[in-house]
Specification:
This protein has about 525 residues and is an alpha/beta fold. It is about 30% helix and about 20% strand. The strands form 4 sheets. An 8-stranded mixed sheet has the order 6-5-4-3-2-1-22-23. A 7-stranded mixed sheet has the order 7-8-9-10-11-20-21, with helices on one face. α3 packs antiparallel against α7 and α5 crosses α6. The radius of gyration is 24 Å and the shape is globular.
Length: about 525
């Protein structure tokens, strides 16, 4: 009964953990790694074909974005998640695949000019389309008998429509353990979705710590604060640019803007135009207006029962084509533009930043977490200029960090969630999904509360039956910020293959001495040849 850590270990993206029990291997999430802390996305530190099940906590790409690659590399098992997460994955993974293909095409055009070798996308649209073949959907509270010695339940995590914590009951060789994976825990009193469910006890907890070192700024009224920013900017003749994740955050913004327009809070233009410039957001919004029974909070359910469209207001337009997107920056009318991606590292938002960052009358409003090394983080940290599409762009627009809209639980709410684990109190808490400076700090906080806790490192392995670490893992070398020296992709691939080798060595324990000796001799010969 082992737990291995393969992503979001002292960083905030690429969530991936693995339970090994009764000869089966179960991944909890399989996310894309992003930002400065990333290791190579191109290789897994395990053989894809060795995985039997994947449990998906929610649809955000940093928790789901490498599932098509897992299938591409030989996964043949089952994928389980909630019904609405599966619906969101249908569109989000296709969008991610389109980005992978487009990025590879752009790199290969450059390679033709420079003579560099061509690259392949991590996965294709066809790979993403295959995910549905492996999918089994569940509802909140449904007990799933997964395989020998494993029962599980998806429980509302309050982070995104369909998001879950996962409770697992594990039994092997007469030893029973209850393990809770928090997933991403949601902020409280968010619009549309419900607050996170609390648990009362477990033997082990794998817990996120995104905001483990700080609380969100107290915001008495989201609508009043957001309306003030929009009013001031539009009165100056500028645009409000909001980088936003297409799923979840965009729909929350539409919910608030409907309230702002109903109350006519923007005095300079009460019927200001709002553009959703993201085909993905457009498709996701249709899911938010479908069958949401069992997923909405009370206020949202009242709107649905009254026949009110949660996102319906005048002067809302959704763009589809790239031509429509480009036209927004040619139109002088002051407006609100909501566009992906939320951290500004891809997508149409980069074009809108190029055309608006240098204008002092404009505002850029961040409404979500900005990962280390991303363009969004650089702007929040006060960058005076940024490079977009090969051009240096001065930053004169007002940069606003609207923390009140975070969909993550803050420090106090994280502590409140874990404090309820008393019957039984966990033998150990594994702190994941937090920056390198945050996760260990939050683990120390938990120790001060009487919990045994630590922040695992990448590829760490833990024996849940014996409550002891089997392998310590390591912290990947941090990539430099934009403009600094970067680790080559070939080196990253070598490191990833090295981790696959270590995984194979660990799994060889108990095999006959003759086979192990032959394997060791072959590896030694290869290393001696390489060093020569």
């Amino acid at each position: 009964m082992k737990l291995s850590f393969y992503g979001a270990d002292q960083c905030v993206t690429g969530s991936c953990h693995c339970i090994e029990i009764n000869g089966k291997r179960i991944l909890v999430d399989c996310g894309l790694q992003q930002g400065r802390d990333e290791v190579s996305n191109a290789e897994f530190p395990f053989a894809a074909g060795s995985i039997d099940y994947v449990l998906v906590t929610h649809a955000h790409i940093d928790h789901s974005g490498r599932i098509p690659m897992l299938i591409k590399q030989g996964f043949q098992g089952r994928i389980l998640t909630t019904r609405l997460t599966a619906e969101l994955l249908d569109i989000m993974l296709l969008d991610s695949a389109h980005i992978q293909e487009s990025d590879a095409e752009w790199k290969n055009r450059k390679a033709e000019r420079s003579g560099a070798p061509k690259v392949e996308p991590l996965y294709t649209i066809e790979d993403a389309q295959r995910v549905r073949e492996f999918m089994t959907t569940c509802e909140y509270g449904e007990i799933v008998d997964l395989c020998e010695g494993v029962e599980l339940e998806f429980v509302d995590a309050g982070h995104l429509l369909g998001s879950s914590s996962i409770a697992m009951e594990l039994t092997e060789n007469g030893v029973k353990k209850r393990v809770i994976f928090s997933g991403d825990l949601g902020n409280v009193k968010q619009p549309i979705i419900r607050d996170p469910v609390h648990f009362h006890g477990a033997d082990y907890v794998v817990m996120e710590s995104t905001y483990g070192d700080r609380n969100h700024t107290e915001v008495w009224s989201y609508t009043d604060d957001l309306a003030k920013i929009i009013d001031e900017t539009i009165a100056k003749g500028g645009n409000v640019i909001i980088p936003s994740f297409a799923v979840g955050r965009t729909q929350e913004l539409l919910y608030f803007i409907r309230e702002i327009k109903d109350a006519r809070l923007v005095k300079s233009n009460p019927d200001f135009p709002v553009y959703i410039d993201s085909p993905l957001a457009k498709r996701a919004t249709t899911i938010f207006t479908g069958d949401l029974r069992g997923y909405l909070d009370d206020d949202a359910m009242k709107l649905v029962k009254d026949g009110t469209h949660m996102f319906n207001f005048t002067n809302l337009r959704m763009t589809e084509t790239s031509e429509e997107s480009k036209a927004l920056n040619m139109d002088p009318t002051p407006k609100v533009i909501i566009s992906a991606s939320g951290m500004c590292d891809a997508g149409r938002i980069r074009h809108h930043l190029k055309h608006n960052l240098w204008r002092p009358e404009c505002s850029v409003v961040f409404v979500g977490y900005q990962g280390e090394g991303t363009l969004g983080r650089n702007l929040l940290e006060g960058a005076e200029s940024v490079k977009l599409f090969g051009e240096e762009i001065a930053v004169h627009a007002k940069i606003v960090n609207f923390k009140g809209l975070s969909s993550h639980a803050d420090r106090d709410h994280l502590l409140s969630w874990i404090a309820d684990f008393q019957d039984p109190k966990p033998e150990h808490v594994f702190v994941v999904h937090g920056d390198r400076e945050v996760a260990p700090f939050f683990a120390q906080t938990l120790e001060g509360m009487g919990f045994e806790a630590h922040a695992p490192q990448y590829t760490e392995v833990y024996d849940l039956a014996a409550n002891k670490q089997l392998a310590p893992g390591y912290l990947p070398e941090r990539k430099a910020k934009a403009g600094g020296a970067r680790t080559s992709s070939a080196y990253e691939r070598l490191v990833a293959v090295g981790q696959m080798l270590m995984e194979s060595i660990r799994r060889s324990k108990g095999r006959d001495n003759k086979s192990l000796a032959r394997f060791a001799d072959q590896l030694r010969q290869l290393l001696e040849k390489w060093e020569a």
